[in-house]
Amino acid sequence: MLAGGPRATLVACLFFTGFGCLIPFLPLWLEQAQGFSGSQIGLVLALGGFSRIIAGPLTAAWADGQSDRRAPLMLFAAILVAGFVALWFVKSFALVFALVLAMDIAFWGLVPVIEAMLLRLTQQGRPAYGTARGLASAAFVLGSSAVGALITGFGPWAVWAWLLGVSVMLLLCYVVLPDEPVEGAREAPFMDRLIAGVSMLKGRRFALLIFAAGLIQSSHSYFYTAGTLIWTNDQQMSATFAGALWSAGVLAEVGFLIFLAGWTARFSPEALIIAGAIAAILRWSCLAALPPLWALIPLQLLHAGSFAATFLGAMRLIFQMHGNARTPTAQMIYMALASAPAQALTTLMSGMLYEYLQPKGQASLGYLSMTLVSFLGLALALRLWRGRPQLAPV
Fold this sequence. Notes:
It contains 14 helices and no strands. The chain has about 400 residues and is an all-alpha fold. The chain has a single domain, classed as Up-down Bundle (Growth Hormone, Chain: A). The model has no long low-confidence stretch (mean pLDDT about 85).
């Protein structure tokens, strides 16, 4: 039987084939199959983000009280399966909205579960974390490319079918992963575990990391909300080519994580976050100009900076701050509070901006708001870098 690291990598790859469908094509499915407006798309995604602020710490505290760290995987996957099955039968807009909101929370709730699982199970043996995470990102490419082609051939309900299939397989993966007993005092009362997790925010550098990385990551919100819509509506791009463009960005992320992660070890985590902020500023500023199709490919390659460098720097810094024992909980707190608040606000703003600018033929100008968010993240990242511990001279 495969060791824990390879099995965790396979599960992560499966999850990211679903994530590769969810992020670029959920807005398209909501618009074309469910009749959502831009503001409604932004609202449901934003509410999902706000809900993760509460769901993240609660999940971390609940998971710390379970006998096995696989428990959140089973919980969220079961919610997804039930929700997607229900969507086939539900016609009421209010019920569709509520189901999509619950599933958005569950899908994003799986992100820290998967990331923490990879960190734990790849520490000994192969693959290394960077390789495992890069393979998972490659699976994102597979998902986005395959679903883009399926939408072209079968219509927007291909999004629903793909996500349902992935959710069922994730539920089955509960029996594939090795048992992982939870370390520590799981008999502690739930509120004590919750307070212990949230109290991590008392650490000034951890809080600064959350806001710096959170702003940089949330600057992707307009791209996630309106990027595919701008390409397909304003630039008359096919869903297949849109999926390929998403793949180009994630391939850059894969290359960065697999081939450059070792090289980047010579730089501090704070420096990687700064590099991510600079790449985001350049990326969104150029996309605001509605560049020609050929220019979109190099701009998508900047995803290696705006996302991958920021992500890798944040993961390394969390491990430096909290060590192996507390990293899983710290990561859930980070995922809930780094991206969720800022991303919820920027997503809500993105939906409104898109709905306001799209009738004027100026939807791409919404990216300038993300440039501003990136500048704020850069300012905080510079403060984080200036406050890093200095090595004693020898």
